[in-house]
Amino acid sequence: MATKKTTAKKAPAKKPTAKKIERKNTPQLDLSNRQDYLSIIIPSYNSRESLERTINKLIDERANYGVTAEIIVIDDGSTDGTAEILQGKRGLIKAIIQENKGVSAARNAGLEASTGKYISFVDADDIISDSYIQDVTAEIKDDACDFVTFPWRKTGTDEVYFDVFSPIPSAAVWAYAFKIAVIGNERFREDWQIGEDLDWLKRVLPGKRKKFSDKIVYTYGWNANPDSLSKRHNMGELPLERQNV
Hints:
By secondary structure, the protein is an alpha/beta fold. The chain contains 6 helices and 11 strands. It has a 7-stranded mixed β-sheet with strand order 3-2-1-4-9-6-10, with helices on both faces. Strands 5-11-7-8 form a 4-stranded mixed β-sheet. The termini are far apart.
């Protein structure tokens, strides 16, 4: 008697699944118990003189106008006595002194140390307005926005830079203020030396509610310090478009 030959059915092939991208060694930002003030993150490398000017301006504004802001300075391995300046400001600022790792690592350290609901970045060798805290805080506290873009000037010119048409209005993080919830756990890539600002902004800004301010709170000092953390590798990492405001 012939036997019926049977073959086992093959299970249907499984569809390939996308691999989940794991972020290794990324500290989680604590978004709870945040305070209702601006945390200003200032990375610095061998910018002692201009850094002291910036810190003093912020401290004076807090004292003279009764405004609240957290000033976080990250000394990224300076050799010009910056650490001594920071020691002299103890109690007035939050100082982080680390070995030289670059601007991205310095900003990441500032984010992790921050306690405010709002974040802004200042480069130690640039110039901020006398009402920086007041103006930035007033704009970013708007419930209708997640981040604010500010127009800015370059030292030695009266021209105002501003691009209201681009999804990313500026390629430099110091032209913005952010709500901490927008930033979440995004970090600057510490192994990048060119374009790290723009890369981070491309991960933070899309889909968020933006606001454009008409307050000029920042002056970009391109020639201020040849050893600048953010300028020595980032020539040209600036808005491509500009308009007079």
